Amino acid sequence: MNTALIAVAAVLLDALLGEARRAHPLIAFGRVARAIESRVHADRRAAGMFAWSLAVLPAVASTWAVVYLCGIAAPWLATVLATGVLYFTLGLRSLGEHARPVAHALGTGNLDGARAAVARMVSRDTEALDARQVAAAATESVLENGNDAVFGALFWFLLLGAPGAMLYRLANTLDAMWGYRTSRYGNFGWAAARIDDLLNFVPARLTALSYAALGHTRMALRCWRAQAPLWDSPNAGPVMAAGAGALGVRLGGPAPYHGAWEMRPALGVGAAAGQHAIVRAVRLVRRGVALWLLVACGIAFLAREWAHA
After folding, report:
1. Strand, helix or coil for residue 250
2. Which of 136, 164, 168 is nearest to 149 (CA)?
3. What pLDDT is stored for residue 1 in this prediction?
4. What's the pLDDT tens digit per position in 192-229?
């Protein structure tokens, strides 16, 4: 029961404070990861696995040790620390803070402002995007990052506690830093990309199922089944296909990356995405979080009652 209540507390803390603006632990972790990369980088998968281990495993082990020892000496302090760890690994409020300016700019006809705002959310080139493509990019980002920045961390926290949330967030960060198919990271970043795929496999499908349950369920499941296998990412495909179907909008399609247009499969059905699709996507993620917390607390309560029976 304590784990579920900590999750509720961390989500409420995120809603109240939002993402830390200064001294965020992930910023320090990024510096450590870059320092490790500069020293051990080589065009070999083994080098990338070694670098990943150096960056992640000591932090996860330290988290486990501190929370465990505090749990013995002062259980209340272990609860506070676990809440803090989950809070720092969540990004629910920041999803809305990044998405709302895009929707607002589109609503006022400020396409240049919308392009500038969505550029802070996605890695694609945004200068050539029209209003529909800007809205689609922002909606896709909200749906995908609902898993990467929220549900994934919640899943691993509920399963393994603070060390699980730490493991997930650091692995996800290294994937964002090293998990590219480029000449520098094709081999070195292989481990970071594959480990992130593995850690996201179950959370992504639970996220897709949550989107389906809270939106146009039949359409979401149909899009998931038909469109997700066409997507390059084994985890982003189910999440975005189910999310687009749940919202009843069309996403995917061509997008510009590094000066060239990449042909991507279509996602979803219905009308093209607009400003309202962005807002609805944020609401869908928030409702999904509420559902997860409700289910987690319900399971914890039933487990406690069964243990005491």
Report:
1. strand
2. 168
3. 57
4. 999 999 999 999 999 999 999 999 999 999 999 999 99
Cα 105 off chain centre by: 24
- Contact criterion met (CB below 8 Å) for 266 and 250: yes
Give the alpha-carbon dihedral of 134, 138, 140, 144, to 10 degrees. 160
* H or E, element range at 272: strand 271-272
Q: How many CA atoms lie within 13 Å of 89's alpha carbon, on the beta-carbon side?
A: 32
82-112: burial string, b at 16+ Cβ within 10 Å, e else: bbbbbbbbbbbbebbebbbbbbbbbeeeeee
For the entire predicted model, the pTM comes to 0.95
Kindly give, in sequence order, each residue whose CB lies less than 8 Å from that of residue 309, ignoring residues fewer than 6 positions away: none
Q: How far apart are CA 78 and CA 60, in angstroms?
A: 15
pLDDT tens for 107-122 read 999 999 999 999 999 9
Residues 52, 195 contacting (CB under 8 angstroms): yes
Distance in angstroms between the alpha carbons of the first and the last residue of the chain: 16
Closest by Cα among 249, 256, 245, 247 to 284: 247
152-178 and 190-214 helices cross at what angle (nearest 10)? Answer: 140
